[in-house]
Amino acid sequence: MIAVLIANVAGLAAITILFAHYWSEKRILSAFLNNMQPRSSESHFAMALDLAGVIHAQIPRGEDPPFIPIRLLDILGATPVSILRRGGCCSGLSRLYITGLGTLGIKAAQVTLYHSAGQAQHCLAEVSLGEQRVLVDPSYGFYFVDIHGMPLALHALRQGARPQYRRLPHSSDEDYPANDYYNFAFSNTKTANWTKTWIRRSAYTILKTLTAGRIDTLRQPLWLEWPQVTLAAAITVGILVFNLVMLFQYGSARVPLF
């Protein structure tokens, strides 16, 4: 069928463009990190803190620039390089930080702080350093420690540990502003913003039941921080489903599979 062939060709073209854009941004991000000239003797912990400090000091704050200016695709968020060039909000700066760390071979994932009233309020990152993890806030310029000054991770925060803060390199900040916006319920911290839209709220209700609550601590994989890859994956799944529907409806002899 001509319609199926056109759909497959269009899908393949879109996926090719998305991955070309992805690899282009990967090169730009790598160049940015190379310009930081990290010392070969520097530990992963020091490298992670230094990158967060650079982002805090150099990247402007503002709205995340949309990847594709279509409201339906706002859920994808901004690309890391668009944030690098134009700035972004806490989720955008955390995305730039996480993808930058990924380029350096350091694992990290987004974490969302929730207000005491229940809504998702602020985004930061949890960095994995072997068996040790630490929460880092590139937006406000510090990382989390416990009362003993040791790095604080998501698990401890959810268990009721009261965080203290240590400033990042290139930062002079050591606390959140003193107003109600930052009245966080730290024990309700999760790995995603589940309150932004009714779709997310509905999905969370279902996923929390299916995972027996484990969805709250499920770390988002690195590839989901790249809108190009996320959209390409969605297009691929859509094309495969479309082809299967056509196959069952018209028979394998008449459907050119992707």
How would you describe the overall organization of this protein?
With 258 residues, this protein is α+β, with helices and mostly antiparallel strands. The chain has two domains: 1-35 and 227-258, no CATH class; 42-225, C8orf32 fold (Roll). It contains seven helices and five strands; from the N terminus they run ααααββββαβαα. It has helices spanning 2-35, 44-58, 80-86, 90-103, 154-158, 198-210, 227-250; strands at residues 107-114, 120-129, 132-137, 142-145, 164-167. The protein has a five-stranded antiparallel sheet with strand order 1-2-3-4-5, covered by helices on one side. Helix 3 crosses helix 4 (90-103). It is globular, with a radius of gyration of 21 Å. The two termini are 12 Å apart. The mean pLDDT is 91.
**What is the arithmetic mean of pLDDT?**
91
CATH architecture of the largest domain: Roll
Largest sheet: 5 strands, antiparallel
CATH class of the largest domain: Alpha Beta
Count up the helices.
7
Indicate the low-confidence ranges by residue numbers: none
**How many beta-strand elements?**
5
